[in-house]
Amino acid sequence: MASITFPSTTELYKTRKFDRLRNFDQCIDRGSFCASTSVFGADPASCPQSLLQKKKRIGRKQTANCFYFCIPCKFCLWNTCFTHITARHHLNPPVRVRCIKASVWEGTSTVAQASELIDLDECSELYDGERLIPEATTTGGLKGEDQALQGRKLWTKVFGKKRGVKKKFLRSGLKKCGKQIASKRNDSLLRISVDLENALSEIGPESSIEKCNSLLKLFEKSSDEKALGLFQWMKNNEKLKENSTAYNLALRVLGRMEDWQKAESLLQEMTADSGCNLNFQVFNTLIYGCYKRGLKEWATKWFHLMLEKNVHPNLATFGMLMNLYQKGGHLAEAEFTFGLMRKHKLHCLSAYSAMITIYTRLGLYDKAEVIMNIMEEDNIIPNLENWLVQINAYSQQGKLEEAELLLNSMQKSGINPNIIAYNTLITGYGKAGNIEGVQRVFQCLLSMGLEPDEATYRSMIEGFGRMDSYKEALWYYKELKRCGYFPNSSNFYTMINLQARHMDEEGVLETIRDMRVSGCQYSSILGSLLQAFERTGRLDRVPFILKSSFYDKIILDQTSCSILAMTFVQNGLLDEALQVLHDKQWKDQSFEEHLYHLLICSCKEAGSYENAVKIFCKMSKSILDINLHIICTMIDIYTIVGRFSEGEALYTKLKESNVALDMITYSVVVRMYVKGGSLKDACVVLDTMEKQKNIVPDVFLFRDMLRIYQRCNMPEKLVDVYRKILKSGIAWDEAMYNCVINCCAGALQLDELSRLFDEMHANGFSANTNSINVMLDTYGKAGMFKKARKLFWMARRQRLADAITYATVIAAYGKNGDLKNMRSVYRRMQFAGIPVPLETYNSMLDAYGKHDRIEQFNNVLQRLKDSACASDHYTYNIMINIYGKKGWIEEVANVLSELKERGLEPDLCSYNSLIKAYGIAGMVEEAVNVVKEMREKGIEPDKVTYWNVIGALRRNDNFLEAVKWSLWMKQQGIAASNS
C-alpha cells in the first residue's frame, strides 16, 4: 500500500465531494428509495426498521412530501432541501419550508462513519418512481446572487409563485445562509481529510474487505485515478471475491470517464473471476452515465447486454432509456423498450409520456392515441406530465375538442389548473384559425385564477397573426411588453408581416426599435423586414423605412448591404440597389467583387440581361480590370443577347492584360464565336488554349471542340481531340458517347466507331436517334447490311426510328441495288405513319433509274408529285440523268422547262447531266453550247463537264475535236481522261 497516495485537504475540497452526478450513481447502485408509498427498485418491507419508525413519527401529512432512502444511511432527507453539514453533522434547511424534516445523527470520526457521512448528500437528483427530476444541488457550491437565484427557482418550482414574498428579503436570507453553509462545509471536509489520513496507517493486506470498500468509496468521490488504483490493489490482494460493492464503485468511475470498453471487460471479470451476481443496479449505473451524456448507442448496448445476462430491468432502467430516446426521437428503440416494459408488467409514467411525445413530434398521431388507450388498459393514473403530453398530441392534430375534454378530466382528477395546458390549447386554436376558441380559452385561463405568462401572450400573438387579426395581435403584443416580458423572434416576425400587410409603417418602425432593444442582429431585422414587404409587393417602401430607422447601420455592414442590394436586384429595383452600393461605408475589394459578381449572376438567371449590363457599367475600373469571373460572365451575357462585338472587346481586353485565362473563360469565348457564326475564330481560340499545358478541358468543352471541328470538316483535329479524351481519364457518360459517334463518324475507323457503339450499350447507356442514324449510314456505306438491319430493328423496337432513319436505310439498300429490301422498308415507313421525306423519293428514283426500272421509276415520281414534297435540284438532276441515258431529249427538255417554271436555274450537276444527254442523243453542238451557257451564267465548268463534252465528241466520231479539247485541258492542268 506504500504506492497509494491520498489526496490532501485542498484536493478534497476542489473535487466537490458532493457532486450530484456521483451522488445519484450511489442511489441507483444501492437499491433505490421510496416516494410516499411507491418504492424505486425495492419493497417497503426491505427498509430498515429504524427508518420505518421515523416515518411513522413524522406523520401522514408530512410524509407525503418527504423521500426516505432505502440505504444504510441513518436519516431521511427531502431531495429539494438545501442541506449543510455542521460540526456535529446536523442537517438543517437554510429556509423554513413546509413539510420538511431532517433527522439528526451523531457520529464519530472512524473511517466507516466518515464514509456514511459522505453518503448524506448522495442524491441531489432523485427518481420519483416515474421520471428523473433534476433538482437543486447542495448549496455548498453556490455563492452570492447565484445561490439566491437557485433558491428562488427551486421555490417557484416546488410551491409555485407566491405573491407578497419580497424578493429582496429572500435573496439576502439565502445569501447569508449560503455563507454559513460554505463555512460549515469546509469544517466537515477538514474532518474527513483527517479521517482519511488516520485510516491510511490501518489499511494493509490483512485489512477486511469492508474496511477496503469504505476507503474505496471515499476515493471514488475524490479521485477517479486513485479509486482505480485502490481497486487494482484490492484485485492483486484477492479482496474482490464476491465483492459486488467494489465492482459497482469501479463501474461508476469508468462511467464518468466514459471508458466503456474497460467497463465491459470489468463486467465479464465480475462474473467469471470474482463470482459476483449481476443485478439491475450494476447496469443502471452504466446506463445512467450514458443518459446524462446523451449516449444513446452505448445506453442501448448496456440495455441489450442486461437482457442477454437475464437481468430484469426496473423502473429506473426504463425511465432513463425512454427519456433518452425521447430527446433524440429514436422511434424504433423506444418502441422496443416500451413493449418490453409492458411485458415485465412495469408501469413507468414517464415512458408513456415519452412514447406519446415521440409519436406527436413525428406526426404519428394515430399511434399516439393508441398509447393513450394503452394507458387506460393498464389502469394507469396519469400524472401532470401525462396529461400535458396527451393534450399536446390532440392539439397538434387539430382535435381541440378532445384536448379540452382531457383538460377537464385532468382538473376533475384533482390536479390543479396548469398554465402549460391552456397555452397548448391557445396554440392549437391559433393554428386552426379559430379566433373564438383562442379568446374563450384565454378567458377560461383567467377565470381559473391563473396568471398569463410570456408563453401565453406569445401564443396569442401568433394565433391572431395567423388569422390576420392585426388589432388583437397588437394589443397582446403591447400587453406582453407591459408585463415586463420580451417578445421572441417569432413574435417580431409576425408583427412585421401584419404591419406590412396593413400598411402600418409607424408600427413597423416601433417593432424595429423593439427588435434592436432586444439585441437582434441588424441582418436578422433587415431579413424579416424585406421578406414581409416582398410578400406584399411593397418593397419600394423599404428605403423610406430604413432611412427612418437604421440605414446608417446597414451601410456599415457588408452582410446587410449584400442582403439589401440582392433583394432589390431580384425584385427589379435596380436604382435602389445601385444607391445602396454607392452609399456603402466599408472597403473590402474582394468582398465587393464577389457581391458584384453575385448581382450580375442573379440578373442573368432571372433573364434581366440589361440590368446585368447596367450593373457591370457601374462597377469601378479596378474591379473591371482584374476580375476574371465577372468579365467571363459578361461575355456570356453579351453572347446571349447577340452583342458579339462587345463580348469580343472584353475578350481582347483579357488577352492584353496579365490575367491568366482559365478553362471556363475559353469555353465561354468559344461558344460566343460559335453562336456568332465565326467558326474560324473559335478554332483559333482552341489552338491558343491547347498551347497552355496547364489547362485541361472538361466534358462540356471537349464536346464543343468535337462539334466545331466536325462543322469545319477537320478530321485530323477530330482524331486528335478523341485521343485527348481517352488520355484525360474523364468518365464517359451517355452524352459523350453520342457526341463522339455523331462527330467522329467520318474521322475514325469503322472498327473503332463500332467498338464505341457496342461499349456504350455494354455500359448501360442508350444511343439517341442521331447516333443510330450515323451508324446506319456508316454500316450502309461499308456494305455491312447485317449490322445495319440489326440496328434498324433495335431502333424500331425502342421507338427511336424517325424519318431520317428510314431514309438512311432506304438509301443504303438503293445504292447497293437491293431493291426488294428498299421497297420493304418504304412500306414499313408508310405503315408506321411516318411522312416520306424528299430524300427518300430521290433515293428510290435514283435506284430504280440506274437499274432501268422505268415503271417503278414513274410510280415513285407520281407519288412524289402527289405528295406535299417539292422537287429540288437533286430530283431534277436524277430525272435529266435517267432520261438522258435513254436518249429521251423531249423528256429532258420538259424537265428543264419544269425546273425553270419553279423558279430554279440549272446548277453545275444539271448542266453536266444535260451535256451527257446531248452526247448520247448525238447533239454535239448543243452539248458544246451548254458549256458556253454555263460560263455566261457564271457557273465554272469542272472536270466532269469537260469529260462529258469529250465523251459526246468521241461518241459522235468527232475525234479531232475531242483531241483538241484534251490538249486544251492538259494545258490548263486538267486531267483529260475520266478513269
TrEMBL record:
Segments traversing the membrane: none
Listed Pfam families: PPR, PPR_2, PPR_3
Gene Ontology BP term (one): chloroplast-nucleus signaling pathway
Alphabetized InterPro entries for the sequence: PPR_rpt (IPR002885), TPR-like_helical_dom_sf (IPR011990)
Keywords: Repeat
Cross-referenced Gene3D superfamilies: Tetratricopeptide repeat domain (1.25.40.10)
Keyword Cell division set for record: no
Keyword Repeat: yes
PPR repeat segments: 279-313, 348-382, 383-417, 418-452, 453-487, 662-696, 733-767, 802-836, 837-871, 872-906, 907-941
A GO CC annotation given for this chain: chloroplast
Stored PANTHER family: PENTATRICOPEPTIDE REPEAT-CONTAINING PROTEIN GUN1, CHLOROPLASTIC (PTHR47936:SF1), PPR_LONG DOMAIN-CONTAINING PROTEIN (PTHR47936)
NCBIfam families named in the record: PPR (TIGR00756)
Family per record: Belongs to the PPR family. P subfamily.
Protein's name in the database: Pentatricopeptide repeat-containing protein
Species: Aristolochia fimbriata
Native organism taxonomy: Eukaryota, Viridiplantae, Streptophyta, Embryophyta, Tracheophyta
